[in-house]
Amino acid sequence: MAFMARGWMGIASVMLLAIVPGARAYGPDGHRLVGAIADARLAAEPAGARVRELLDGLTLEQASVLPDNIKAWDRKPPDDPNTWHLRDHPGLEKQLRAFWEANHAPGSDPERADHTVYHYTDVPVATPGVKYADARHGTGKRDIVQMLPYCVRVLRREVPETNERKITRAVALILIAHYVGDIHQPLHVGSQYFTMKGPADPDKVTAYPSQGGNLITLLLTGGSDREQRGGRTARMHSYWDGDAVRTAKALIRSDMLEQTPGRADVTDEDIARYLAAHEPKGWKTGLDGSPEACAQAWANEILPVARQAYERLTFTEIHLGSPGGARTRIVAEEKTPQPDGVPYAEWAGRVVGRELHLAGWRLAEVCRTSLTKEP
């Protein structure tokens, strides 16, 4: 489904500063929309009933944010009464806690059992046409392209619930609801790497990753995005998690209102039902193969988009400290005009709108094929 141009004002300039990486995921709005689309797709099907049974009555929309919620336990463990709790579903919380305890290894090392690194991979985007399987940097045995199919196999009973990662079928479904959204966020899959001279291919020179945009801060100087922020800046990754989602939803609302003259409003629930009823082009990509092949197909599909997200910027000032160090500073401006004439904010909104749409349909299909044959 195509989203029409609405004349959104672009980002006039961008400033990149080194900051401590935050949550690497679509924000709650994006994840909930993916889950809500899938819920609508499965509402009248046996798989939908099995989802609710496994999740103790929760919907995919509600479950989709839980893998980010448990990150609160990294700061205040589950025993702390003032930390996050899923109080109305103690059985699910117990399973999530077991998962967290088995996968809590501070340090964000892709080779360690740390649930926070399961949400992403950092494939270098500097090489045109790069594929996940060919990447020599930024991938790991426990990145999202590895963890998503593992969870699918647990859900299908191909991996026992007694696995060392403490991923039960309920936890697997919760993680799938979240990871399917994550792998459709461009900066969750592709990352730009830098030398003092600018963007670089780490296969050819020593280069530092931008950690999926987490070391990049966007300084917005105009347009509705800045007005919504009240003048605040945003990390590039956070921009894609939040602002771009809001732009995407605004574009969809505008389309829906235009198609129905006299309509007063469009709610988030309306958007989810609308997207669930309209088939996105190419949504079946990867679904006819193994879970591992499917995850790689989705990663490879979005890598060119991640590359564009960085190519639409011009880097003008670069100071690199140690990887992730506070002395790193990079300044950039949006290319004006853009090659396609579309400002960065609108382009990002269009991309996110399509990716959330695809993710919702694909999540529903993963649930359908994994749960329809339940005894």
Shape: globular
The number of distinct β-strands equals: 10
Strand arrangement, largest sheet? 1-10-9
First-to-last CA distance: 36 Å
- Average pLDDT metric: 85
Helix content: 40-55%
Enumerate the spans where pLDDT stays under 50 for 5 or more consecutive residues. 1-24, 221-232
Q: Could you give the order of the helices and strands?
A: EHHHHHEHHHEEEEEHEHHHHEEH
Tell me the strand percentage band. 5-15%
What structural class is derived from the secondary structure elements? mainly alpha
Biggest β-sheet strands, sense, barrel = 3 strands, antiparallel
Our Rg estimate from Cα atoms comes to 20 Å
The number of helical segments is 14
Word description of this protein:
- The chain is mainly alpha-helical.
- The chain has helices spanning 28-42, 46-54, 60-63, 66-69, 90-102, 144-155, 169-182, 186-189, 224-229, 236-241, 243-259, 268-277, 291-311, 344-371; strands spanning 14-17, 123-124, 190-191, 193-195, 198-200, 208-209, 217-218, 234-235, 313-319, 329-334.
- Strand 4 (193-195) and strand 5 (198-200) form a beta hairpin.
- Helix 1 (28-42) packs across helix 14, helix 2 crosses helix 14 (344-371) and helix 6 runs antiparallel to helix 13.
- The radius of gyration is 20 Å and the shape is globular.
- Residues 1-24 and 221-232 have low confidence and may be disordered.
Concise synopsis of the structure shown:
By secondary structure, this protein is mostly helical. The chain has 14 helices and ten strands.
What are the salient characteristics of this protein?
3-stranded antiparallel beta sheet, single chain, 43% helix, mainly alpha, 375 residues
